[in-house]
Amino acid sequence: MRSENEKIKIVIAEDQKIILHSLISLIVSFGDVEIAGTASDGVGLLKKLEVIKPDVIIIDVKKPGLTQVEVTKTIYEKMPWIKIISLSRYYHPVYIKEMLKNGAKGFLSKNCSLEELHEGIRSVYNGKTYFCSLCSQVLYTDYASEPAADSIGYRNLTKREIEIILHLSDGATTKEIANTLFISDKTVERHKSNLLRKMRAKNTAQMVKVAIANGVLII
Hints:
The protein has helices at residues 17-28, 42-48, 68-78, 93-101, 114-125, 133-144, 159-169, 174-181, 185-198, 204-213, and strands at residues 8-14, 33-39, 56-60, 83-88, 106-109, 130-131. The chain is globular, with a radius of gyration of 18 Å. The longest helix has 14 residues, at 185-198. It has two domains: 8-141, 3-Layer(aba) Sandwich (Rossmann fold), CATH 3.40.50; 153-213, Arc Repressor Mutant, subunit A (Orthogonal Bundle). The chain has 219 residues and is an alpha/beta fold. α2 (42-48) runs parallel beside α3 (68-78), α7 (159-169) crosses α10 (204-213) and α8 packs across α9 (185-198). The relative contact order is 0.11. Helices cover 48% and strands 14% of the residues. β3 (56-60), α3 and β4 form a beta-alpha-beta unit.
């Protein structure tokens, strides 16, 4: 627990510069939190942590380099005292559970409120697990729901399939996705075929719409 005048030291790992600068401004405005450092990718974050010893990390990074899950796992194994909050634009229950399993203590949607961002930082710093209201609802629905035999297959998506959907929603081509995820074009196409079947979609645009409607990702 921090003393009355002691600020919570935060490192922000965010690969989009505009969002990074916005987060810095918002977090500094809280008054009881200070920015100890920033990073734009997972590798850079791990190097930063060799020098900076923050209380909390807010992370949203993608490849190239290490994935967000891989970075979280590494930090948790080597520096378990650091509290990790995932800040993400997509919040499928499979992804949330994967982050939790690998050491994350908080999960915030990029649609969360300013109050939830502040509360999330303070909560994980004080040893609690925190979810914004949107992520809490996603987890509750996933836990409570028993899908019918003919229901849509979005609840059975793999972590890789969720990554593919995220890149497709950004307009990435098969070649670009393959290069980013270090897999072959054929593997990407196979994942896309599986996704079209699971999401019961006729094309990529419809698949992305179904993903958004069912909480697989947000835009």
